[in-house]
Specification:
This protein is of the alpha/beta class. It has two domains: 3-94, Double Stranded RNA Binding Domain; 107-187, Winged helix-like DNA-binding domain superfamily/Winged helix DNA-binding domain (Arc Repressor Mutant, subunit A), CATH 1.10.10.10. The protein has seven helices and six strands; from the N terminus they run H-E-E-E-H-E-H-H-E-H-H-E-H. It has helices at residues 3-21, 55-65, 75-90, 107-117, 127-133, 140-149, 175-187; strands spanning 25-32, 35-41, 46-52, 71-73, 125-126, 161-162. Strands 3-2-1-4 form a four-stranded mixed sheet. A two-stranded parallel ribbon has the order 5-6. The N and C termini lie far apart (52 Å).
């Protein structure tokens, strides 16, 4: 093996190790029934699950979410995480057994996200009801903003929140995906 090849291998190994010991974020992109899925992991846990149609757009979205972090494409390390997310789309009742890193949220957002994680598969709640659950009955708009700031699709199931009249409202990854997720969970 040439010295150049050894240097390239060493740099890749160093990059993979760096993503587990620093502020770097390792990520991988795969395909699902809802389009492309990007799963990103910090040293704490999964910090992003993004849904889209284009690898570059997903990577740019991740970069915007974590502007001070180095992003490292690391498919082998994240293959298991990506498979669990894709499996969750196919079988939502199975849940997502992955550690989540919600540190980028404010304390209020994290309270909302924790409450979202407690909503059972197939159930829905209104923004107002979710605000009451976290002890902030007048904070329905703030709850909606916290849902919009969620970067961990499916792991923090903000798709389970609807308007007070039961209709679907905006969803970071598209209203049609939200509808499809709700319908799939209702059949589970």
């Amino acid at each position: 093996m040439s010295l150049t090849n050894m240097d390239a291998i060493s740099r890749r190994e160093l990059s993979a190790k760096r993503a587990t010991t620093s502020n770097d974020i390792a990520y991988s992109i795969g395909d699902s029934a809802f389009g492309k899925i990007l799963v990103a992991r910090s040293v704490v846990g999964v910090c992003a699950v993004l849904i889209g149609s284009d690898d570059d757009a997903l990577t740019n979205d991740l970069a915007a979410l974590f502007p001070t972090s180095g992003l490292i494409s690391n498919e082998p390390r994240l293959r298991g995480d990506l498979n669990k997310v894709v499996r969750l789309i196919e079988r939502p009742e199975a849940g997502l057994d992955l550690p989540l890193d919600m540190r980028r949220g404010t304390p209020f957002q994290r309270r909302v996200w924790d409450a979202l994680r407690a909503i059972p598969c197939g159930a829905m709640v209104t923004y107002a009801a979710l605000a009451r659950r976290i002890g902030e009955p007048n904070a329905a708009r703030a709850v909606a903003s916290a849902c919009a700031a969620n970067a961990i699709a499916l792991g923090i199931p903000c798709h389970r929140v609807v308007r007070s009249n039961g209709t679907l409202s905006g969803y970071r990854w598209g209203i049609e995906r939200k509808r499809a997720l709700i319908e799939k969970e209702a059949r589970a």
